[in-house]
Specification:
Number of domains: 2
CATH superfamily of the largest domain: NAD(P)-binding Rossmann-like Domain
Strand order of the largest sheet: 8-7-6-9-10-11-12
Order of helices and strands: EHEHEHEHEHHEHEHEHEHEHEHEHH
Oligomer: single chain
Strand content: 5-15%
CATH architecture of the largest domain: 3-Layer(aba) Sandwich
């Protein structure tokens, strides 16, 4: 199928959307597409019709059910505006012959910068001192300088060298650090451009002053960071996770922090995020002084939204030109073609 084959492709935006983002989505819409917002459709019957006529689903379809997917008649591709895709049934979509694409690294700069924020917050004890000062207390521990560090000169180990991992490496270049990385696929071209050195995972963990995680949550990465892995790290090393909560075994992490097997952790993601959000769970990690924590917002900036929308619409056009990018369910699509 070629780009100008039709002039009325239907894009159904699925998920909540702030008004300023809605305006951007409408303004940036290519003239070949019609845009409809699923949550603004009032009746169940009308929503069903919109699903049936949609050529593309776009947005953050967290509540997109199997019934929704089976209701579609003309669906050609699902374009997620997040890097994350574990919330969507990519296996079923692939079996139906529907490619699912993520945002192509649109949030990589935001997450990389947030990673550095967490590193520096741990190194300078920002949480503790800011809290005291806001309480009106001019608080500085005796010999406090002995517990603070500079980023310059440290060895930073990046686990996962995709869009976000490489963006972090670019950001770190100005801090004069040594960059090492591990990924299941070695990227020699990126190594040259970014001055990064490949290491096997265990060697990276043993060598790094800072370990930062940037892999997707898959069966192979679930509990990737557990007791044995944490035991390989330096006692003065810090760990950063802005990827997915299930990658770290939080019980093992809690024990490592309490026993000072590692010095600290910066977290933006958690095993039980839904329960924390609903007030049904308080992670014991959040009670520790050597933990800096944020509520899963590393990738959220208005600048990111511009890139999400540009990448998303661009990839719809790429699909119609026969060359979609950022597809995350390729193996299932290939499986369905061979059946």
């Amino acid at each position: 199928m070629k780009y100008n084959a039709r002039k009325d492709y239907n894009v159904l935006y699925y998920g909540s959307v702030p008004e300023d983002v809605r305006e951007k989505l409408t303004r940036k819409l290519p003239e070949e597409f019609n845009l409809e917002f699923y949550l603004e459709i009032e009746t169940k019957e009308e929503r069903k019709k919109s699903l049936q006529k949609a050529d593309f689903i776009m947005g953050f379809p967290f509540s997109f059910t199997e019934e929704n997917l089976l209701t579609t008649k003309n669906l050609k591709m699902v374009q997620l505006l997040s890097a994350r895709y574990d919330f969507f049934d990519i296996k079923m979509a692939g079996k139906m012959g529907i490619p699912v694409a993520n945002n192509g690294g649109a949030n990589s700069i935001a997450v990389a910068e947030h990673t550095i924020l967490l590193i520096l917050s741990l190194y300078k004890k920002l949480w503790k001192y800011q809290t005291k000062l806001k309480e009106g207390v001019w608080y500085r521990e005796k010999n406090h300088a002995q517990n603070m560090y500079e980023l310059c000169g440290k060895k930073v180990g990046i686990i996962g060298f995709g869009n976000i991992g490489r963006s972090l490496a670019r950001c770190l270049q100005g801090f004069q650090v040594e960059i090492i990385y591990y990924d299941v696929v070695r990227n020699k071209e990126a190594e040259k451009k970014l001055g990064a050195r490949f290491m096997e995972l265990n060697e990276l963990l043993i060598s790094s002053d800072i370990v930062s995680i940037h892999v997707p949550l898959l069966d192979s990465t679930m509990n990737m960071i557990s007791e044995n892995v944490l035991g390989l790290m330096k006692s003065n090393a810090i760990l950063i996770n802005t990827a997915r909560g299930g990658i770290i075994n939080e019980k093992d992490l809690l024990e490592a922090l309490k026993s000072k097997k590692i010095a600290g952790v910066g977290l933006d993601v958690y095993e039980r995020e839904g329960d924390i959000e609903r007030g049904k769970h308080i992670s014991p990690l959040l009670e520790l002084e050597n933990v800096v924590a944020t509520p899963h917002y590393a990738g959220h900036t208005i600048d990111t939204w511009d890139r999400r929308i540009t990448n998303g619409y661009g990839n719809l056009i790429d699909f119609l030109d026969g060359k979609p990018q950022f597809v995350v369910n390729t193996s299932w699509l290939e499986l369905s073609e061979n059946q």
